[in-house]
TrEMBL record, chains A, B:
One of its GO terms (molecular function) is molybdenum ion binding. Signal peptide: none annotated. The lineage of its organism: Bacteria, Bacillati, Actinomycetota, Actinomycetes, Propionibacteriales. Its cofactor is Mo-molybdopterin. It comes from the Bacteria. This is DMSO/TMAO reductase YedYZ molybdopterin-dependent catalytic subunit. Residues 253-362 form the Moybdenum cofactor oxidoreductase dimerisation domain.
Length: 365, 365
């Protein structure tokens, strides 16, 4: 067996090719939110989506050090105690994986096979990233900020620590947080214990877990996760466009009760309150449309107040007079930047940012 | 669309048929333990395996009632406060899903497609089931005890609340617990909040979540989950044998670092400490064998003390002199009842209790 067999190149599924064993291994490790858990404004522990590129590293809060170095006046390193002394801020943030929706694309890019459930909302507590950068003193020649986690592995033939870069402007203006608590408790191992970055509004790949280093560099960062992996491309080899903020999406809590195997839904006839959540990383959601006839006609759902309008999902509801027979429910979000969730999102080779509208088949009895 | 399309019959995958969309939906909702999390003696929240047949129900501890009725001297119902007043016992238990290993079978039964990761160990706190049965007074004619959860759905065409039965003897002798805490906190929603049964040593299907009723009946229970679903059969339609206790299994913590997509492992040459966990629901594990040459030769691993020898997994370790090249690691558990984990477990139609030995491919560099 060769290194190429150990670490395969990216590929697209053949026509009609079922989910592969490699994809299933990832689906068995990583998990999404069961859609009925959209009922909780704050996602309970263990129901928030998780994606781990390599292994969850074995870490320890007691001797953990976070270094800030590179193009700074004064390199500093921080332990947890020092970070806690710098202040404490809690924000409620909806995070979504950039690969959410990938397994519904045709052809299907072979990678973590998310359907639509790679989302969750948590309260993260930590110190603003800007405060750490200010403490170190960012030099004028700094261009990008590189965040390095403690997880280590090989991806498409390249051995690496997980690393992502932001521009200095993005790092300062994104209200990013260096967090040590999730929902009021120390971070769980799979969410970055003891320290992670949270970049509100951005897909999850920016929120580097098990954060151990912040380096300021004087040229654009060209690491694997920025320059190779997380890019919107239609052809292999083209530079593509960086994946950044979360595209608008609405998801319904499936009504009625499910069939175990197909997850199809059975709903009693009569008045049904349909509920769900909608979010966007670009701007607050200001409209959700819902269709009970597979998109033939649409009506506005009622929007409830968000618990954190800028950063967290917004609940919506809709009263449906359900008549016997099969119905396809679908829903789409609009945000204040003018973005509208598409009925079918454009395809891309990496399977990123696929916010194609959810379709939910129900049998009304 | 008909009810048969909404709730399909059980079937086997065709030769070469990839994982189906239905299976992927289940894999995206339910999740296993990432194998590196076998390093924790007690599985942290969110890393313990979860299987939910229908939806996680919306429940409330404040007005929750558990009824004990049927063939008893005195039907009783309990709120959480009354249960807490009856005593408090904490046990460390390893739970495994009966379908663990299903997706590795040939032909593959189409259902929740576990590979080998549907396991976890937690500390459960509650009151012994025997104390509740004693309080109600089991009448001599009682044969079976039926446990009903609040989750509701359709399975293979049959609408049902999730229900499982035990014989009165099994209920009394299994040291079963009616639990309200997991690892010292109220049960998470997906693990049965506010109340669940824990039947140590049995596959997870016996540990009914969202427990609301315990009924004693004067004949054997013939409900779907006992008589139809959880049975070892080689032919459709035969009565089969009930799935009960957990068969022995050992799992290695994958050494070195992984490739993202294939999960193959890269290991530096030299001395490597291989570690893992082994368990059995029949009797304590008393031996673990390990092979670093795909089963050609075997050596005994060193067993550490279990934190709860009867009910929880037992750690093992093995020092390996890793030489460059490809190696297949495999491992198997023995227990004090004389059961030995097979290199390849016999096939069955439901895909239950497949404790075929783990095989882990590593490239030593």
């Amino acid at each position: 067996m060769t290194i190429e067999q150990f670490s395969t190149k990216g590929r697209l599924a053949d026509v009609g090719e079922g989910i592969t064993g490699d994809e299933l291994q990832l689906a068995a490790r990583n998990h999404g939110i069961p859609l009925e858990a959209l009922r909780y404004d704050l996602t309970p522990p263990g129901l928030h989506y998780v994606l781990v590129h390599y292994d969850i590293p074995l870490t320890n809060a007691f001797d953990w050090r976070l270094t800030v170095n590179g193009c700074v006046e004064q390199p500093i390193d921080f332990g947890l105690t020092e970070l806690r002394a710098m202040g404490r801020q809690t924000v409620r943030v909806t995070l979504e994986c950039a690969g959410n929706g990938r397994a519904n694309l045709h052809p299907r890019p072979i990678s973590q096979p998310w359907l639509m459930e790679a989302v969750g909302t948590a309260e993260w507590t930590g110190v603003p990233l800007a405060a750490l950068l200010e403490a170190a003193g960012v030099l004028p020649e700094a261009v990008d900020v590189v965040f390095t986690g403690a997880d280590h592995g090989v991806e498409r033939g390249i051995e690496q620590d997980y690393q992502r870069g932001l521009s200095v402007a993005e790092a300062l203006e994104s209200n990013a947080l260096v967090a040590w608590e999730m929902n009021g408790l120390p971070l769980p191992p799979q969410h970055g214990y003891p320290l992670r970055l949270i970049v509100p509004g951005w897909y999850g790949m920016a929120s580097v877990k098990w954060l151990r280093s912040i380096e300021l560099i004087d040229k654009p960062f060209t690491g694997y996760q920025n320059a190779e992996a997380y890019r919107i491309r239609t052809e292999a080899g083209e530079p593509g466009v960086a994946v950044t903020r979360i595209e608008p999406r609405a998801l319904l809590i499936p009504p009625g009760h499910p069939d175990f195997m197909t997850r199809h839904r059975f709903v009693p006839a009569g008045e049904v309150t349909l509920q769900g959540r909608a979010w966007s990383g670009w701007a607050p959601v200001d409209r959700v449309e819902l269709s009970t006839n597979a998109g033939a006609t649409w009506q506005d759902a009622e929007l409830d107040a968000s618990s954190n309008e800028d950063l967290a999902w917004r609940p919506f509801s809709f009263t449906w007079q359900a008549t016997p027979g099969e119905h396809v429910l679908t829903v789409r979000a609009h945000d204040k930047s003018g973005r509208v969730q598409p009925i079918e999102a454009p395809w891309n080779r990496g399977g990123f940012a696929n916010n194609t509208a959810q379709r939910l088949t129900v049998l009304v009895q």
